[in-house]
Amino acid sequence: MNRNELNPDASPQAAYGARLRSLREARGWTQEELAGRTGYSGVHVSAVENGRKPPTLRFSRSADGAFGTAGTADAFERQYREIKHGALLQGFPEYVKYEGRAVEIRLFEIGIIPGLLQTPEYARALAGGDVRRGTITPEQAAERVAVLAERQAMLVRSRPPTLLVVMDESCIRRPVGGAEVMSEQLHHLVEVAELPNSMLQIAPYHIGERRPFNLPINLLTLPDRSMVAYAESQARGHLDRESTFVVSALSAYHQLQAEALSQTESVAMIKQV
User: For position 85, what pLDDT does the model report?
Assistant: First the structure.
């Protein structure tokens, strides 16, 4: 069998494949032997090693079982998640795990529609802007939109979480993707406001300094009633659990809801825009 030379610097996926081959050869295993230990075919193992097939979560966990790396810093599952979420801020993939379990989600956003409420076209327009600025690749942009679609799916499950959203007025005033994309996005917000498990409010400009947050923030209530707070800077996201910050953030969020327009008034503003 011909042995292709691998370049681990070519891409994160190539680095995954090169590492898989290195560990396999260090143990003296053939691709068929590794295949037998993971439940995959030798052809599949070869394709992952050579970058022709992307690794999956199931394959990564099987590889960890074969090599004894499960739960370690060198786990293939961890490397897989880094590939999958390479386009996302540090700290955000961990937040997504909690978000998927939450029974209540409180969001505050400035400047853009919150991700869980974005239409695909609006999300692609935002990601496309980052591609044009050179901050992410087209592939990472597609991955970002795909991850968003996965997150949004929980809102239509049989027992969806309660969704409480306050948006700064700038979210609906800032045009993204052109008039048609923006019009569709605003219509979608009105539809979200009609859902029985959601509450949508606008924090108007005129509340001024009474707006308690100057940065976006997400607050999650988990099934055991514990809470998680997530906030982002330009460079990274920060996750906080059961701390003084979480308690104070929840109190500030209640103050924000009191200052914001009612849902009826908010929907009227969105329709006017």
Answer: 60
Specify whether the CB–CB gap between 218 and 165 falls below 8 A.
no
Q: Is 28 left (phi over 0), alpha (psi -120 to 50) or beta?
A: left
Cα–Cα distance measured from residue 179 to residue 129, given in angstroms and rounded to the nearest whole number: 16
- The pLDDT tens digits of the residues spanning 114-158 come to 999 999 999 999 999 988 988 777 877 887 888 888 889 888 888
pTM across the whole model: 0.69
Q: Taking the chain (273 residues) in consecutive chunks of 10 residues, what is each chunk's mean pLDDT?
A: 68 84 94 94 93 87 94 82 62 80 96 96 95 83 84 85 97 97 98 95 97 94 93 73 87 97 98 96
| Angle (CA) 163 127 124, round 5° | 70
Domains of the chain and CATH, by start: 12-84 (1.10.260.40), 92-118+153-272 (3.30.870.10)
What does each C-alpha distance from 155 to 51, 98, 182, 218 come to in angstroms? 34, 14, 22, 16
| Residue-wise burial string across 122-159, b where 16 or more C-beta atoms lie within 10 A, e elsewhere | bbbbbbeeebeeeebeeebbebbbebbeeebebbeeee
Q: How far apart are CA 268 and CA 142, in angstroms?
A: 33
- The CA distance from 108 to 104, in Å, is 14
Tokens 């937040």 map to which residue? 95
Of 25, 29, 77, 86, give the one whose Cα is nearest residue 55. Answer: 77
Rounded-to-5 percentages of helix, strand, coil across the chain: 55, 15, 35
